Amino acid sequence: MNNSKQNSNQSTSIQILNYQIIQTVYSGSRTLVYGAIRTSDQLPVVIKLLKNDYPTFSELVQFRNQYTIAKNLNSPLIIQTYSLEPYQNGYALVMEDFGGISLQEWGVKRKNLPSLREFLEIAIALCNTLDILYRERIIHKDIKPSNILINPATKQVKLIDFSIASLLPRETQTLINPNILEGTLAYISPEQTGRMNRGIDYRTDFYSLGVTFYELLTGKLPFESKDPMELVHSHIAKASPLVHEINSEIPSVLSKIVGKLMAKNAEDRYQSALGLKFDLEKCLTQLQETGDIQDFVIGERDVCDRFIIPDRLYGRETEAATLLQAFERVSSGATEMILVAGFSGIGKTAVVNEVHKPIVRQRGYFIKGKYDQFNRNIPLSAFVQAFRDLMSQLLSESDTQLLQWKEKILSALGENGQVLIDVIPELEQIIGKQPAAAELAGSAALNRFNLLFGKFIALFATAEHPLVMFLDDLQWADSASLSLMQVLMSQSEMGYLLTIGAYRDNEVFPAHPLMLTLEEMKKDSA
What we know:
Helix content is about 40%, strand content about 15%. It is built from 18 helices and twelve strands. A five-stranded antiparallel β-sheet has the order 1-2-3-5-4, with helices on one face. It has a four-stranded parallel β-sheet with strand order 9-12-11-10, sandwiched between helices. It has a three-stranded antiparallel β-sheet with strand order 6-7-8.
């Protein structure tokens, strides 16, 4: 079941073969949940449906994912799935009904925070749940109070909603707009935002569990904002107030446990659910025996049985610092280009990705394109990739923001919008169909394109949101790209733009077109 329950005894017109619908349990933006009776054996069940009459392929895959992963987890701590049945243009997911409501509904919404004892019992049960996922190599990726059910009478706890769960032991989140990130922004781990230059593993769930504990103990989220980018920046870089600072009744050792779970780097969090469980059980034992919880050293039994190489850059501090300094200058209005050279596989991209974190702070855009050795005949291929990526980021913004972008772009391009739509088709979805541009030949057409592209880039490179453009494998760049790069760096009115170029220095020579272009750019800037 997804998100909080909203009990309603209203009759519904939904009809599902072999089931008698009793009530609507939840109606959200994406899903509907009903309480029902299976007619064959009168078993109470919960049925989850997609709200969209014509679900997208992605929605259908996520829905199947819930069933595929959960059906193999035979545990009283995880909601049991009975079947996945075809329904209209999608599926109906049939699950057990054990009389549970979400922790969000039970505790947070009603401001009826659990007692310390109740909290510890719930927390220990969740540790057992995460240990099961760990052993099955499953990353849930959306741990939050509305995905944890509790039976108010028995206090039995069950985890639900495996729609975005992963069976991979490790994943990499690409850089996308926060509005379309997998997971829930208020509970998402720093690495799951795709802006930490770090992979995602089982410890992402520990961070989300820490935020869940925080909310259950204080009634508040550690970071609250309606601005998605501000939330992302908070998770990555800001320290939240400690739990006992908000709720003075919380023992400081419990506050430390929550703080450890919410560490920014996965290496600093708990490394095992059993290590966390040991500390929580110690708290519960003290509470039961003495009525009080005294300080103790946490994490003493926290041992990971997997070999995990820390996600850190080693020996690249100088290079990373140079990049970050360049971004700081660009954030103040400069236009710069930095080149990263080295053999294939030496870690050029890993160094470049370190710039993600400060970009979030400045609300900047990071876009990237890569040249292909076998597609050198396609002009501007990496630029086009980068800006198609940017258009995708814009298309996931709100309608109000999209309208503002449309006005800005049309104002800058005038009657020549079609010139850029020809190379960036996604642009048409933002500014609409444009009249055919006047035909120009040879250098006139190239000059017009370079001028328009420069104006287009300038729209996104501003004080409000600096632009970082990463062009990889420049040794295979075509002449049009090298020419455009030169034009961009020479435009005096351009600002807030950082272009990072990476190339394999063992594949270029002094007379290589890239080296000749760079030499000319050096002379122009001198």
